[in-house]
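User: Can you recover a sequence for this backbone? Please restate the input before giving your answer.

Assistant: Of course. Working from this structure:
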């Protein structure tokens, strides 16, 4: 199963708008995508699941994807995170 380590770099962390942006991007893909923090594993297509991680700026998370478009999904989600979810800071 492909996976990527990501670090939350926007000032406000995974708040509602950032979580919605990540879930929206994940929903474009057919593969199963999970986001992990420590022992918490959530569906990356769920805004509420993502928000449950309470990931502040600097938090390291693990993205895992399983399915035919897994690599493309990880590339797209990593890009969204690295672009700070479209936020200025």
């Amino acid at each position: 199963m492909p996976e990527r380590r990501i670090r939350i770099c926007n000032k406000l962390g995974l708040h509602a708008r950032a979580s919605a942006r990540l879930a929206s991007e994940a929903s474009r893909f057919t593969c199963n995508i999970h986001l992990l923090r420590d022992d918490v594993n959530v569906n990356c297509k769920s805004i509420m699941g993502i928000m449950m991680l309470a990931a502040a700026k600097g938090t390291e998370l693990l993205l895992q994807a399983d399915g035919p478009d897994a690599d493309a999904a990880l590339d797209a989600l990593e890009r969204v995170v690295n672009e700070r979810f479209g936020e200025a800071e």
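That completes the design. Residues 42 and 54 are 12 Å apart (CA to CA).
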